[in-house]
Amino acid sequence: MLKLSDEPVIAKGNRQHVYAHPGDPTLLVKIPQPGTFEPDGHIPNTNWFERRFRRATMYKSFVREFREYLELKAHRQEPGVLLPICAVHGTVPSDLGLGLVYERISDPDGSLPPTLKEMIDTGCLEAWHVPLLNAFFDTLIAQHVVVSNENLNNIIFQTERPGHGRFVWIDSFGCKQAIPTRKWSKWLNTRRLERVRSLFVAQAEEALARIAEISLPAGSVR
What we know:
The mean pLDDT is 89. It is globular and about 60 Å long. The protein starts with 10 loop residues before the first strand and ends in a 7-residue tail after the last helix. The protein has two domains: 1-104, 2-Layer Sandwich (Phosphorylase Kinase, domain 1); 107-222. The strands form two sheets. A five-stranded antiparallel β-sheet has the order 1-2-3-5-4, covered by helices on one side. Helix 4 packs antiparallel against helix 6. The longest helix is centred in the last third of the chain and has 30 residues, at 186-215. The protein has helices at 48-53, 60-73, 116-122, 129-142, 181-184, 186-215, and strands spanning 11-12, 16-20, 27-32, 88-92, 99-103, 155-161, 164-169. The chain is α+β, with helices and mostly antiparallel strands.
């Protein structure tokens, strides 16, 4: 059993805390946040349908992400192949409850890469990132990756060397539809991913435009 209660939380989601794996620096462990689930194992505000047909819902995101990773990995078994989502390695017991173990994606200095939202908010997004963001969505579409929401914090940018790197979807992937039409239909999934691409690229380009405005000398005209 992993002992995580004395370890710092290094990242937070809506319902999970993320810890460094104490026994392997290449892994992270995701644990449901205290207070985000009920004694019967359900998430608060779970609808009657899920309460009726699911015995528990607090780990449904774990199941969804693990299934998406397995189905994607089944088609890409070559050694060293890079997937557009982080690798999910299964569950592990801890003193804070059952955790999901997944790949730790790091920058060359060992730090966690910034999310797309952090890049936009801090002004570290540059013009050369946008073609890589578009190429990333091309890969998601080609590989029929299903994503669960439109959160800029779900994408990180891993620097490989100066001026080079890749985007990775690290959270909220897999199908959450009751009738999984986007999982069944690549065409429907492509439509959804194109909408998400438009949203993300637009926000990135707006951020770059703001940076360009700030950097203009006083009184100059673009």
